[in-house]
Design goal:
With 203 residues, this protein is mainly alpha-helical. The chain is 57% helix and 4% strand. The protein has a two-stranded antiparallel ribbon with strand order 1-2. A two-stranded antiparallel sheet has the order 3-4.
Length: 203
């Protein structure tokens, strides 16, 4: 709803449409935030021997793998590709699925493939860093956000599908950039500073 407001608040749209995931799926930001909220509510309903932050750390690498696999759905739907390209791995897009103004181009950057590969690489990096980032619960999850948004910020600048702009940049670029800066700051703060009890550690 935030990054594509016209689909829900514009002519013919309705806010309730954001919940109809069977009509096109859910954006990654909504999927992660609502998924995390649902998992937290379910976690709190039963007494556990660990904290939710520890659970989130354990799930972080698998979330990246799941996101990477999910991106291949864009290939079958012929969507979310990038600029025209003649690279050997460029995607051949049918005329009816080419964006307005790009009908004369046949092959495009497979940005969804770039994101899938970045997710898999990110999962490997998180797994390697786990020995250093598991000292404080929750740090791995923030590292997951940092890694994903770092790649997403660049990938988003390559896409040519319709999107809302803010100061000449796609809104998703701003969202990714903000989340990257914030999560990276949290990771460094929690890694470099001496451990002290915090609200997040106890969640």
């Amino acid at each position: 709803m935030i990054t594509s407001p016209d689909a829900y608040f514009g002519a013919g749209g309705h806010p309730i449409d954001a919940l109809k995931i069977w009509q096109g799926g859910m954006g990654i930001w909504g999927a992660i935030s609502l998924g995390a909220l649902s998992a937290y509510v379910a976690f709190r309903r039963k007494r556990r021997s660990t904290t939710f932050s520890t659970l989130a750390d354990a799930l972080a690498p698998t979330l990246l793998i799941a996101q990477g696999i999910g991106r291949f759905g864009n290939y079958f739907n012929g969507e979310l590709f990038g600029r025209p390209s003649t690279l050997p791995w460029a995607l051949n897009v049918p005329v009816e699925k080419r964006p307005h103004g790009f009908e004369q181009f046949a092959t495009f950057e497979p940005t969804f493939l770039y994101e899938a590969l970045w997710c898999f690489i990110g999962a490997a990096i998180l797994t390697y860093l786990s020995r250093y980032l598991l000292r404080r619960p929750g740090t791995m999850f923030f590292a997951y956000i940092s890694l994903y948004t770092f790649g997403r910020t660049w990938i988003e600048t390559q896409r040519i599908d319709p999107a809302h702009l803010l100061l000449g940049l796609r809104i998703n670029v701003w969202v990714s950039g903000f989340l990257f800066i914030w999560s990276t700051w949290v990771v460094f703060r929690r890694t470099l500073r001496p451990r002290s009890a915090s609200t997040l550690d106890k969640i």
